[in-house]
Specification:
Layout: E1 2-5, H1 11-14, H2 18-35, H3 39-48, E2 54-56, E3 66-71, H4 77-90, E4 96-106, E5 113-122, E6 134-135, H5 138-148, E7 158-161, H6 162-178, E8 191-194, E9 200-203, H7 208-228, E10 232-235
Antiparallel strand pairs: 1-6, 1-10, 2-3, 3-5, 4-5, 7-10, 8-9
Helix pairs in contact: 2-4, 6-7
């Protein structure tokens, strides 16, 4: 689960690397194209699509420029042309220079044709504000928000005022700093369980100090939000 500030602009940070850009293109390009499909086309796409549709070429994943791959499986010819056209028109809007479009050609990774977009310049680098957010597993999020902070109604999609969350975190941290082993009492030990298909799943758990570290991160996120006018925190 991700703890973030409602209304804050996290998209600018995504524009600094191809992985984030691929997520944006999924929302701004693929979703509109999908919504324009007939019901038959949607069913065909879902049955025949590649695991990934628009994604960075391996070595370029966290680079500001490089190649984005568009795997065309599930699209008809008109759909492929529409995605290419939408990408060409959208990239300049987010300050990216498209050098070349290659393909379609057969992918070596998927049973799909692939179109490659070569991006030569990214004018977004260094311009985004580092808005804080916190990533936690579902189990860790439940431990922090429900067991440690006492939000009994916590569930995915939970929202709370930043000031209330900050005060709750501050109260717990004060106890942690004055009472020996306070957070160790609610810590979760490492474990290993059989997952789906019998695969072993390792859970590293959270020690008291690990819990405290995450609480400090949440407190800093809340302080940033209150300082910059983002008064609500969302966990989802």
């Amino acid at each position: 689960m991700t703890t973030s500030l409602s209304g804050a602009n996290y998209e600018d940070k995504d524009l600094e690397n191809l992985l984030g850009i691929s997520f944006i293109l999924g929302r701004k390009v693929l979703t509109p194209v999908f919504n324009e499909m007939s019901e038959f086309e949607k069913e065909y796409f879902q049955s025949n699509r590649s695991m990934e549709v628009i994604t960075p070429d391996g070595p370029d994943t966290f680079e500001p420029t490089g190649t984005l791959n568009f795997y065309t499986a599930g699209f008809n010819k008109e759909g492929v042309e529409k995605v290419i056209d939408y990408v060409k028109k959208y990239l300049p809007k987010i300050n990216l220079t498209l050098k070349n479009v290659r393909g379609p050609e057969q992918s070596g990774m998927y049973k799909s044709k692939v179109v490659r977009f070569d991006i030569s310049n990214n004018a977004n680098v260094g311009k985004s504000e580092n808005v804080p957010e916190l990533q936690m597993s579902n189990a860790n999020a439940r431990l922090i928000y429900k067991d440690v902070l006492g939000f009994d109604d916590f569930e995915e999609g939970y929202s709370i005022q930043a000031l209330e969350l900050y005060n709750r975190v501050k109260e717990v941290l004060e106890k942690h700093e004055t009472q020996i082993d306070y957070l160790d009492k609610v810590s979760r030990l490492p474990s290993m369980d059989a997952g789906e298909g019998g695969a072993l799943m390792f859970d590293s758990g959270l020690r008291g100090d690990d819990i405290a570290f995450r609480l400090y991160q949440i407190a800093n996120l809340c302080k940033y939000g209150m300082k910059h006018g983002f008064t609500k925190v969302v966990i989802g």
